[in-house]
Structures are given as C-alpha cells and as structure tokens.
Amino acid sequence: MEIGMVGNGKDMGRGGGAAWAWYGLGVLLMTTLFAFVVRQMLSLIAPSLQTSLGFSDLQLGMLQGLGMAVFASVASYPMGWLADRFGRRLILALGVACWSLATGLCAFQDSFGGLFAATIGIAIGEAGLAPIVFALIPDLFPERQRNTANFIFYGGSLLGAGLGMALGGALLQWLAQAGDVLPAALAGVDSWRIAMMLIALPGPIFFLLVLTMPLGSKAGLAVSPVADDAPRDFLPYAGAHWRTLLCVFGSIFAMAVAMTSGVMWFPLALPRAFGIDPATVGVGLGSAITIATLVGVILAPVLLKLRRRDADLDPLRVAAIFVALTPLPAAFLPFTTSPFQAYLVAAVQGALGIAASSLMPGVLQNLAPSHLRSRVLALLGIVNALALAASPLAIGALSGLIEGPRGMLQAITIISLPSLIVSAILMAFAPGPYAATLRAIRPGLSKEFP
C-alpha cells in the first residue's frame, strides 16, 4: 500500500525530487483531460445515437444520468477503498484501463442495453479519478507546496471540462469531412463509432504513465507519521470524528445544492423572466461561469497567502470567509431586472463558491489519515452526486407552485439562499472539531494547537 508523505526540504532540493513531483502532477492532469474527452463525447454523440439507433430522449437521459452519474457515485467509495488498500497508482491505472476498454466497446453496440452496460463501465472506471488524484497529491508534494498543486489541478480540471468538449467536437467535425482519408474498412461506419474507437486508443499510454508515475523517494518525500491510536478503518474514524465530517461535508453538500440550482435552471428561468432566447442565455451564462472560474481559482490562493497565520487551519478559515459571503449575491436574484444583472449575480456567487471549493481538497487531505485518504475524498463525489439529485427535484417541484414568469427565479432563491446560509453556519462551526481531528491523527502537532 502507498502511504502518505510529508515534505523533506533537503530531499526536495536534491535528486530532481521536485521535478518528479511536477511531472507526476502533469500525468494526473493529462489523465483527467483524457477522462473529460470520453465523458463529453457521450453528450456530443447523443444526436447521432438518436439517428442511427433510434434512442429516445429518456434513453439518452438514462445513459448520461443513470449510467454515468448514479453508477459513478455508487462506485466512488469502493474505488477509494481499493486505492487505500492496494495502492493508489495501481487502482487509478486499472480505472484508466476500465474506462478505455468500455469506451472502445461502445463503438460495437447496436442496442440500448449494450451501450448502457458499456457506459456503466466508463462510470466505474472514472469513479475513482477525483478522490484518487487528490489523495495522490500529498504523496507527491510536501505540505508547503500542496495547496499550490491542488489549485493547479483544480483549475486545470475546471478548464479541462471545456477543453474536453472542444476536442471531442473537433474530432467529430473532422470525421464528418474525412471520408476520403479513412481506411476502406471504416467506409460506411457511423462517425460516432469511429470517434469512440479513436478516443479509446490513448488508454494504454495513460495506463502506463499512471502505473509508472514516481512517488515516495523519487518525489523526495518521507513517510508521514500517524498517531498510534488513530483508527485504522473508516467506520471507527468516522465515528470518532463525526462532528468534523458533518460540518465539512454538510457545508459542501449545502453549497453544491445552491450552485447546482443556478447552473441547471438558469437556462429555463431567464427566458421565462426576461423573454430572451435560450441560446442567448447559454452565451451569457457560459461567459459568467468562465469569469467566475478564473476569478475564484485566483482569489483563493491570494487570500490564503495574505493570511499566513496557521498553515493547518488557514485553508478552512479562508474557505469559511468565502462561504459566508455567498448568500449576499444570492439574495439579490429575485430583484434582478435584466439578464445582465442575473449573470452578474451568477458570476459573483460562482466566484465565491469556486474559491471555497478549490480549498476543500487541501482541507480533506489534512483531516484524513494517509491510509484512509482516498475513502474520505471519495465522500466528496458522493455528496456532490446527492446534491445534483436533490437540487433539480426541489426546484422543479417548487416552481410549479409559484405563478408568474419569475416563479422559477423565486424558486431558485428559496432553495439556494437557505442552503448557502446553512453551508456558512456549518463551515463557521468547523474549525473547532477540525483542529481536534488534526490533533488526533497527527502526533507531531503541539498540544497548544488551537
């Protein structure tokens, strides 16, 4: 089993340890981009699936919702357990192999059942991606560089989602015009099938890159001590530190409910409220989200650097500041009088939420013992999946009870504003139990630690 690491300054300065660490982060970023291309391609080929296989909207929804989201959340914790038990690199590499093989198999399916089964394979393979990657970062970087690595990976992942969509779209456009250059064996084959085969081809390369990624001594790190009486299994750990987990993950869940409500329902709410074209909403909301992403990812490390009071508690306290501010823009949404004002609310709220969210991987890395880290981080995906399921249902049900063109905007506020307030309250109470958890699992901390 690969165990957690802490920095050794002298080692990091010798033998290229720092270079190996950044190389490892590059491998993780490229692997994540590969996963995004696969994930986004399933959305891009949806019209082709309806044309060639006659799938209904419900079936497409089942492929992307039930097939991907549900099975990915269900498999997240088992993948985390396997990673902690048998090695994070190994399980991540096997995950790459699983989703690559399943992607290739998609190309040979002629029925909904076959494509649904292949989609489940993709979901299971990708389920461990985020928790294992964030669990691997402390195995690559010392504590003084960990937040920087987290910010780079988090920002790269957000941008990678858009880049994956762009690369997938470019591939489909090329295939539509490449009939003359394709081998004769592929003549008459649907372009979506060829696309799935092509994006599966890099799988063996990424499998080997992940499997041979340097950790431990090559990255210049030493073994992290764990308290002798620290729980060795997840359930005893969760029972001993339930207050910390409740505050942190409860806050994350409430924040995710609020953020999901805006992203999913704005394209429907703004045309109703302001009589604008849905395509216009896509451009405006997409621009707002892009700006919010860039501002949020930059804002978090800047404030963290300015604070510099306590390396262990600062990420949580800085996140609490951002979370406490998010209800303010949300409260203005029902009073907006133009689409621009609604986009501004979304951008400000989004920037604050992304700034807080970008600090959460570091917070979770600190509170998890090294031998449980992947499982604790797997809870992040499960919590976000639950929020993704709860938020649309709540707003959809509530908006039907509110009459008028602005009813959905009001429903979004009714759900998101209390959620953000609850998130802020839980995060405000988190530092006390969080500090107690750190003292319990890290024996090197002083008894005077706050």
UniProtKB/TrEMBL annotation:
<feature type="domain" description="Major facilitator superfamily (MFS) profile">
    <location>
        <begin position="24"/>
        <end position="434"/>
    </location>
</feature>
<keyword id="KW-0813">Transport</keyword>
<feature type="transmembrane region" description="Helical">
    <location>
        <begin position="114"/>
        <end position="137"/>
    </location>
</feature>
<feature type="transmembrane region" description="Helical">
    <location>
        <begin position="90"/>
        <end position="108"/>
    </location>
</feature>
<dbReference type="GO" id="GO:0022857">
    <property type="term" value="F:transmembrane transporter activity"/>
</dbReference>
<keyword id="KW-0812">Transmembrane</keyword>
<dbReference type="InterPro" id="IPR011701">
    <property type="entry name" value="MFS"/>
</dbReference>
<feature type="transmembrane region" description="Helical">
    <location>
        <begin position="316"/>
        <end position="336"/>
    </location>
</feature>
<dbReference type="InterPro" id="IPR044770">
    <property type="entry name" value="MFS_spinster-like"/>
</dbReference>
<feature type="transmembrane region" description="Helical">
    <location>
        <begin position="245"/>
        <end position="268"/>
    </location>
</feature>
<feature type="transmembrane region" description="Helical">
    <location>
        <begin position="149"/>
        <end position="172"/>
    </location>
</feature>
<feature type="transmembrane region" description="Helical">
    <location>
        <begin position="376"/>
        <end position="402"/>
    </location>
</feature>
<keyword id="KW-1133">Transmembrane helix</keyword>
<dbReference type="GO" id="GO:0016020">
    <property type="term" value="C:membrane"/>
</dbReference>
<dbReference type="InterPro" id="IPR036259">
    <property type="entry name" value="MFS_trans_sf"/>
</dbReference>
<feature type="transmembrane region" description="Helical">
    <location>
        <begin position="280"/>
        <end position="304"/>
    </location>
</feature>
<feature type="transmembrane region" description="Helical">
    <location>
        <begin position="192"/>
        <end position="211"/>
    </location>
</feature>
<keyword id="KW-0472">Membrane</keyword>
<dbReference type="InterPro" id="IPR020846">
    <property type="entry name" value="MFS_dom"/>
</dbReference>
<dbReference type="InterPro" id="IPR005829">
    <property type="entry name" value="Sugar_transporter_CS"/>
</dbReference>
<dbReference type="Pfam" id="PF07690">
    <property type="entry name" value="MFS_1"/>
</dbReference>
<feature type="transmembrane region" description="Helical">
    <location>
        <begin position="408"/>
        <end position="429"/>
    </location>
</feature>
<feature type="transmembrane region" description="Helical">
    <location>
        <begin position="62"/>
        <end position="83"/>
    </location>
</feature>
<protein>
    <submittedName>
        <fullName>Major Facilitator Superfamily protein</fullName>
    </submittedName>
</protein>
<feature type="transmembrane region" description="Helical">
    <location>
        <begin position="342"/>
        <end position="364"/>
    </location>
</feature>
<feature type="transmembrane region" description="Helical">
    <location>
        <begin position="20"/>
        <end position="42"/>
    </location>
</feature>
